[in-house]
Amino acid sequence: MSDIIPIRTALISVSDKTGLVEFGQALVASGAAILSTGGSAKTLREAGVPVTEVSEHTGFPEILEGRVKTLVPQVHGGILGKRHDPSHIAQMAEHGIAPIDLVAVNLYPFEATVARGAEFDDCIENIDIGGPAMIRSAAKNHEGVTVLTEPAHYARVLKEISTHGGTTLATRRALAASAYARTAAYDAAISAWFAAQLGETYPDRVSVSGAKKQELRYGENPHQSAAFYTSSPARFGVATATQHQGKELSYNNYNDTDAAFECVAEFDEPTVVIVKHANPCGVATALNLADAWDDALACDPVSAFGGIVAVNRALDEETAAKIATIFTEVIIAPEATGGAKSLLAAKKNLRLLTTGGVPSPVEEGVTFKSLAGGFLVQSRDAGRVSKRDLKIVTRRAPTDKELEDMLFAFRVAKHVKSNAIVYAKKLMTLGIGAGQMNRVDSARIAAWRGKNAGLDFNGCAVASDAFFPFADGLEAAIAAGASCVIQPGGSIRDKEVIEAADKAGIAMVFTNMRHFRH
Predict the structure, then answer these.
(1) Residue 233: is the preceding peptide bond cis (ω within 30°)?
(2) Contact 469, 461 (CB under 8 A)
(3) Which residues pair with residue 422 across a beta bridge?
(4) Cα–Cα distance between 436 and 440 in angstroms, integer?
(5) Residues 181-221: tens digit of each pLDDT
(6) Which pLDDT band, with edges at 50, 70 and 90, does 57 fall under?
């Protein structure tokens, strides 16, 4: 027996009218009759497509302000009835239920309603009930029913109807899987919204959904597979980015680019961040991006080769020309001038991304980390320290210039893998120590890198993402040339560390805020 199911009756009820008229016209041309509701029926009828209102088909009017219009046996029986089961066929005939072969439904725009900040009652009214019910019914009975949940599905179905006279079982199964994924994502959005209304950051159950943006060539390593999914609401960055040139981004490109853009978003003035393996290897703030690039590159020009560059202003031609002098994997910016785009177009292996904006570093949200058998959820590290938050703990107070450099270094340290040590002077990083098992090694490695690049550490600031457990890490920073230190404080040996700072005559402040990043 052929698995091809012809489309004799189609039920269409869509909120997204994209391609609706053309789809309806093609169905009618193939011999199908169309049932429809509300706005969909109006759109089709105005385009000259013959359509029967669902209420006319069922003999039951839309009631309760349209809340009930398809939740009737004539609709769900027509969808759920098994086409080759004699008892189903007999019962459908007994009750005057005609089979429905295709269901095209996309849901009330709940996610968009929430995203625009609608009032509670408006959000409630945009929770679709009949739509998900029809989608789930059609997907369950995919052996005999074709279900479409978005306009992108129309072309595939119409091609099969044109080629085979109906849809294949393989297509119906694929569309059924897509349908259940859509209703799952829809329910996840509603669940998350309700939890937010109740002030529940961590409800008893949490659902995560995403839309596949890109299947990647491979994962973190070539033997791993990977894909990139976007979630809602979108945050300015890789999820909102337009790629202007170059080959597809890899898993590591996405990860590193996200790290770079999140770091550069910390700064209000023109800033450049260079990232390698998810860690900053150069950060600088200046009067313009071109000067900031020079200073950021000076921190670690060796690691910058093959890195990711993020800027927090529209990328201009002068800055683009400077970046283009070394091999760079990705440049990400909120915007780029025409001159910058034209200049970089010659670099075939470089990808230029524009995001449309810069994310807020203090925006609340949650992050996820997978574990074997589960995942961790935590609030985004939106902490930001200002001058008024600092506690001076040494005899010598820092100068205004030292305070400026300390705060700059501490913002960078927030984006460096722990244990993190950042040396900075004149709003540029001199050395960055990341991911070491102890803080002393981070302090020494950071100083070694910067001095190897020929930078002057005398009078610089040093930031630590967490407290110094012993004085040795601080002493290593002092030996490197640091004149002031910013750190969270909170060690049982804080007194010993403060005494070491006073002995060296340097200034030290506590932030009372830790920035571990693993």
Answers:
(1) yes
(2) no
(3) 432, 463
(4) 9
(5) 999 999 999 999 999 899 888 999 888 888 899 999 999 99
(6) confident
The predicted-structure confidence for 293-315, as pLDDT tens digits, reads as follows 999 999 999 999 999 999 999 99
With contact defined as beta carbons under 8 Å apart, do 432 and 415 qualify? no
Give the C-alpha distances (Å, rounded to integers) separating 450 from 43, 85, 423: 66, 77, 9
> What tokens appear for 465 in the block?
């993402």
From the CB of residue 406, how many other CB atoms can be counted at a distance below 10 Å?
A: 29
Summarised one tens digit per residue, pLDDT across range 421-480 is 999 999 999 999 999 999 999 999 999 999 999 999 999 999 999 999 999 999 999 999
Beta bridge partners of 52: 35
Task: Give me the CATH topology for the region 383-510.
Answer: Cytidine Deaminase; domain 2 (3.40.140)
With H, G, I as helix, E, B as strand and everything else as coil, classify residue 454. coil
Q: Within 10 Å of residue 126's Cβ, how many Cβ atoms?
A: 18
CA atoms of 363 and 479, how far apart (whole Å): 38
Which of 10-19, 67-76, 384-393 is least confident? Answer: 67-76
End-to-end CA distance of the chain: give it in Å, rounded.
57
DSSP string, 64-119: TTTTBSS-SHHHHHHHHS-TT-HHHHHHHHHTTPPP--EEEEE---HHHHHHTT--
CA angle, residues 85, 184, 39, in degrees to nearest 5: 80
On the 0-12 / 13-18 / 19+ scale of CB atoms within 10 A, 197 is: exposed
How far apart are alpha carbons 178 and 181 in whole angstroms? 5
Place of tokens 């005398």: 458
Q: Name, in order, each residue with C-beta under 8 angstroms of 372's C-beta and a sequence gap of 6 or more.
A: none
Question: Would you name the residues annotated as active-site residues?
Answer: 140, 277
Q: Where are the domains of the chain?
A: 9-197, 234-354, 383-510
CATH among 3.40.50.1380, 3.30.530.20, 1.20.1740.10, 3.40.50.2300 for 9-197? 3.40.50.1380
Amino acid identity of 293?
Answer: W
Task: Tell me the C-alpha distance between 516 and 496, whole Å.
Answer: 22
Contact 337, 315 (CB under 8 A): yes
Q: HSE, CB side, 13 Å, CA atoms: give it for residue 43.
A: 19
State pLDDT tens for residues 429-441: 999 999 999 999 9
> Which two three-digit tokens encode residue 457?
């550490």
Q: Is 383-510 the same fold as 9-197?
A: no
Q: With respect to CATH, is domain 234-354 assigned 3.40.50.450?
A: no
CB neighbours of residue 503 within 10 Å: 11
